[in-house]
Design a protein that fits this description.
The structure is a homodimer. By secondary structure, chain A is mainly alpha-helical. Chain A has two domains: 365 residues, no CATH class; 152 residues, Transcription Regulator spoIIAA (2-Layer Sandwich), CATH 3.30.750. In chain A, 63% of the residues lie in helices and 6% in strands. In chain A, the strands form two sheets. In chain A, strands 3, 4, 5, 6, 7, 8 and 9 form a seven-stranded mixed β-sheet that branches. A two-stranded antiparallel sheet of chain A has the order 1-2. In chain A, α21 links the parallel β7 and β8. In chain A, α3 runs antiparallel to α15, α4 runs antiparallel to α12 and α6 packs antiparallel against α16. The longest helix of chain A is centred in the middle third of the chain and has 29 residues. Chain A is elongated. At the A-B interface, α6, α17, α19, α20 and α21 of A face α6, α17, α19, α20 and α21 of B.
Chain lengths: 593, 593
């Protein structure tokens, strides 16, 4: 039992994997220290909270998760969700703010564990790619915008409206702190150089290829070290009024159950739900993308359990919610990580940092951390997906846009909910007006295709109609209307063959409607037949006694069998005679199913 | 323009229709007077309010509606919705209570007009038959239970919990007013006799068949007349403490815009929405059922406009919300109504009643009206649908039960919302785990069927997989998993043919997943092909450049063409060689679409 919960790589660990894991784990740790501090600041928390969360998550996830490469820790979007969620509760003090953040990690942990153990991982599929892309882009813009005040070294009143925020920022430009602007913009320039210019330079300098990724990924640490040194030497924190990180308590946090009041849980629950879903969706997408490159499998429910445990661990050491992040996981993979040992190495280095090196970070300017966040989230902005989606399917494009604007205008949590609901409604709207095709015979084959798209033969007395959708309550009324009008427009029709090759389900409402249709059309002198009924659908129809209710109508195995049988049937003159004749036809027996 | 809004029967009215319409309209009016008073009482309103609403609705609906037989006026379920909705706003006085009810009629009118003019009538389809049946049954039980206190002649504290209500009623049994109980139970007995015993008796007495329905439908008026006479003669209202209707103002109401404060509108809106949808769903179902018997058409959006106008008219004369009712419409139809003139006749008789006969109703005991309501709603209790639905489809049965219990335990408005959401979620859940069938060739035909259901031939190297669902974000992850495992279980497979005859749509998320699948399986040495792609789906795939992304995979017109082509393809040994060979195969060209 326990063994099935341990990841497969533990039993089969090779000594040869260790050096690769050591290198990758070190590279990730070098990225992680400044990112954890920056994201913690984005979440409105002291920088050490991000480090605590990062260390505990990196320690626990690899023991349970199904991904070998996922780097779990603080990430930008979850930090934003924490910031807006906790602020909406109007905490009275920084201590209460921190308390809420820690309780969120606990709640997210419990929710994700519960969803995983309850095998509800499939729920994350209710977020379509379009919704996720729209959400990520809008959230990245929101995050980037939230950092501009740190870049300018000014304070602006808190607001949920991006228009008010833009206005406040514009008004504060004259009050910008020049030193902060130089540090922030300088950091951005250095970070961009590391990722855009440096690799080519290193290759020209004949640096071996395997070293190039690790070197470029030291960029955040490099700007943090440079920024801290400059600020310390010039005393920017004191003399120039540049905001700096300040005292970070040295040493490890004590492990304890977070102190909390259950009073806040009803308010925290929706925020925790949003973080659980969004965090899982981001993490699962990265894990799957990396695993497929090595033909490994990711299990959704197992991932939920592992992320839940990581969040519980984070809350135990006073950290805030975590998830598998995109950029660090990709770096871990491309730096050569082989197993979860790489994540354990990162955790160890974080513990070392917390124990011995926190004093080095006292003078890191906020503007430098803001620069790191801005460069990180800029990569998440994805308008190309919108273009592709819009061209492929208007509904997907509309889902993207609805989520994008809802997140920008209504906030991140409401926004993703609106997006998910819009996507579901568009899907239902589409299935509520199914495509119907009148089909005819292709040449002398047994194949039947849409008369509008193919050169086919039809018989005016037999209307063969393919229904391109499952029949269920949302579309039954529409279908009944359309079929009745199609028959009404063709007075010469005496047999209607409903081809159900694309009907995967007929629900109770649709069954009622079909039964009505049979009666209504019989009164109009038209017999209803079915063809190409799928096995599971036929089982249900038989259980409900539908074949009897078809009366003289029949159920054919194939469209071809239906058309051949109905063409050769004698002409019918009156409804009364028709019924007699059809009874006779049906007594001769249809194709058995 | 105006002409298209007038019903078709107006231009073609026959003098011969008049006598039929006169008879049917009179029969409906005889039912309507006591029912309108009873339902008004159920809604917590004075009896004349129901009469005002009934007269105005019967006058306006036939001028706009598409049904010739629908009898619009106060109905039981809408009255219940008004009662619980208005009570939830805790009005301070009967005047304020009435004000809310009138404003509800106004709001319902505006909403239904707006929905109809905006052509949103299809939204009513989101209530499945199972949800409507579960709702109606639970609402009928709730209504019946709410009348027991009048039958007992006692008062009980208002409560939303049926358990508390049952307990209060049980505790009040010792205090029951014997005269009220005798009147109420006697009314129920007489009403049941009229509908169950009388028709046979009349037939035995050789009464002509056309008169039987009109005679039996005088039952409510008969018990009201008898009850009022008994109460007047014995002075039951004064001496025995039997609750009676009391003073009804004589004459017509003044026509005016209802006085209202917009303040209450945000609270009234959800109630008005529930009434609009439920009222429309009931009315539309009856109208369609009756129209189909005479091969006439009902237009959803036109019905919404007509019902909206009827509700606006009701609010103008100080009435409460109305809709097309089941029982009176059926009586109208079976009493021989030919056109909307029948409804105009009813309206005229109601105006006469209001002008001259209100004094006759002063002594009608509440217990008699409660008896009328109980007998009317008892016909709505429908557990047979549950049995049929459950046997046919568990999801429909579950929707019924969820709605039924939600209505009983959470109240009528929350209940129907819960039911609608449960039905949609069950639908999504079903489409999230689509049926997949491996198919093989039936004998020497060109037909391919599920290997588990038919005796078919297969080729171990070619896996032909039929996907029985549209591909969209809710099911892509599941499908990818299932397909990858199916291929993994069959190491000899080198070609996978996805048969998409039942795939009616591929959304953006599913397209991404398909592209990933092609790459993942190519790495595993398996080529992905498509067969039987529908026209609209193919158009989209081509727009997105998907055929190119299939690489050496091909798109076949039919499953047969795919299997024949792939069986004759040369054996492939290694992925690398495979790619070369497949490139060669693809250069020979597939079947053009």
């Amino acid at each position: 039992m326990i063994q099935t919960w341990l990841p497969s790589w533990i039993a089969a660990y090779h000594r040869g994997d260790l050096s690769a894991d050591l290198l990758a784990g070190t590279v990730v740790a070098i990225m992680l220290v400044p990112q954890a501090m920056a994201y913690s600041l984005l979440a409105g928390l002291p920088p050490e909270i991000g480090l605590y969360a990062a260390a505990s998550a990196a320690l626990i996830y690899p023991l349970l998760g199904s991904s070998r490469y996922l780097a779990v820790g603080p990430v930008a979007i979850v930090s934003l969700l924490v910031a807006t969620g906790v602020a909406s509760l109007s905490p009275a003090s920084p201590g209460e703010y921190l308390g809420y953040a820690v309780q969120l990690a606990l709640l997210v942990g419990l929710l994700q564990l519960g969803l995983g153990l309850g095998r509800l991982g499939f729920l994350a599929n209710f977020l379509s790619h379009a919704v996720i892309a729209g959400f990520t882009t809008a959230a990245a813009l929101t995050i980037g915008l939230s950092q501009v005040k740190l870049l300018l070294g000014v304070t602006v009143p808190r607001t949920d409206s991006i228009f008010l925020l833009l206005r406040s920022l514009a008004l504060q430009i004259p009050n910008a702190n020049v030193a902060a602007v130089i540090l922030g913009v300088g950091s951005i320039a250095v970070l961009l150089f590391f990722s855009l210019g440096l690799p080519a330079l290193l290759r020209r300098g004949r640096i071996p290829e395997p070293w190039i990724v690790p070197i470029t990924k030291t960029a955040p640490l490099a700007v943090v070290a440079a920024g801290a040194s400059i600020a310390a030497v010039l005393d920017l924190g004191g003399r120039a009024g540049v905001a700096v990180v300040g005292e970070i308590p040295a040493g490890l946090p004590s492990v304890l159950l977070p102190a909390f009041s259950f009073v806040a849980w009803p308010d925290l629950l929706p925020i925790a739900l949003a973080i659980s879903f969004v965090g899982f969706a981001e993490s699962y997408a990265v894990a799957k993308a990396l695993a497929s490159k090595r033909r490994e499998k990711i299990e959704a429910n197992r991932e939920l359990v592992a992320l839940g445990a990581a969040n519980l661990a984070a809350s135990m050491v006073g950290g805030y919610p975590v998830t598998g992040g995109f950029s660090r996981s990709v770096v871990n993979f491309s730096a050569g990580a082989r197993t979860g040992v790489s994540s354990l190495v990162s955790a160890g280095l974080l513990v070392l940092t917390l124990t011995f090196f926190t004093s080095l970070f006292h003078t890191v300017p906020h503007a430098v951390l803001a620069g790191i966040i801005i460069v990180a989230v800029a990569k998440l902005i994805d308008f190309r997906s919108l273009k592709k989606l819009w061209r492929y399917s208007r509904a997907d494009g509309a889902s993207y846009l609805a989520t994008f604007f809802a997140v920008l205008l209504l906030g991140v949590e409401t926004g993703i909910l609106v997006g998910a609901i819009v996507a579901l409604c568009l899907h239902l709207w589409r299935t509520s007006r199914p495509h119907l095709a009148i089909v005819g015979r292709v040449g002398e084959t047994e194949h039947y295709r849409n008369v509008l798209r193919h050169d086919v033969q039809t018989d005016p007395r037999v209307l063969a109609l393919r229904i391109d959708e499952s029949l269920y309550f949302v579309n039954t009324a529409y279908l009944e209307d359309r079929i009745l009008s199609m028959v009404a427009e063709r007075p010469e029709v005496r047999d209607l063959v409903l081809i159900t090759s694309a009907v995967n389900f007929i629900d109770g409402s649709a069954l009622d409607t079909l039964e009505n249709l049979v009666v209504e059309l019989r009164d109009a002198g038209v017999l209803v037949h079915l063809a190409e009924v799928k096995g599971p659908v036929m089982d249900r129809l038989e259980r409900a006694g539908f074949p009897r209710k078809l009366g003289a109508g029949r159920i054919f195995l194939t469209t071809h069998a239906a058309i051949q049988a109905l063409r050769s049937a004698p002409a019918r003159s009156s409804p009364a005679e028709m019924t007699r004749q059809c009874n006779r036809i049906s007594r001769t027996g249809g194709v058995p199913i």
